[in-house]
Amino acid sequence: ADTIAQGEATVAACDRHGPALEAHGFVSADRTRLREALDALVEAVRRVCEGPAAKGGRPKDLDEGLAMVADGRLADVVLRVWVSRIHEAGGEGWRTQVEGRDVTTSVAKKDAKGGSSPVSVRLSDEEFRELVDSLVAARPGRLPKALRDEGRTELSLAVLGRSVGVQAGPLSRTEPKTQAGADEAYRAVVAAVRKLHQRALRGSEQP
Q1: Residue 90 confidence (pLDDT) above 80
Q2: In terms of Cα–Cα distance, which of 201, 144, 153, 199 is closest to 176?
């Protein structure tokens, strides 16, 4: 909806400011071609959005949202993942953010202030599919808000407003039964995002 509105606003601006544009060498024929291109873009976006909107494309919960991304009912851009893991074995921590296929990550040293500059990478179709399949299998929608972990970790996942957030650390007072039921899913999500962190670091080292 935002893209359609922006496109329509740009088309209207071209019409409204036509004389001023022509005064700067932007001739009428150029304005006409631009308007036609924007009209086509707006219509294309509208057609893409009509199907999911008509079918009620909003998932009922996070797990369903992940499944909808996996089977193509929702676009990859609606996926959001964030993991901040202060440190792991070796004294090195990391923070990774996933927005659709775009991954941004940074390294933090346990014994040093701050961390490395963020690096980014765009996932291939195969890499994105592997990520989504891992998240679907983990069923993170059932994760509790707190868990025990040897390192302090913040984790959040979201698809179209359906989300879950977890804070984990050695001092958590999570009930043993809750911990046992959620530990596998939690560690599966962390492992999947850790893999993206390592992938982004490798990509940043390539010439």
Answers
A1: no
A2: 144
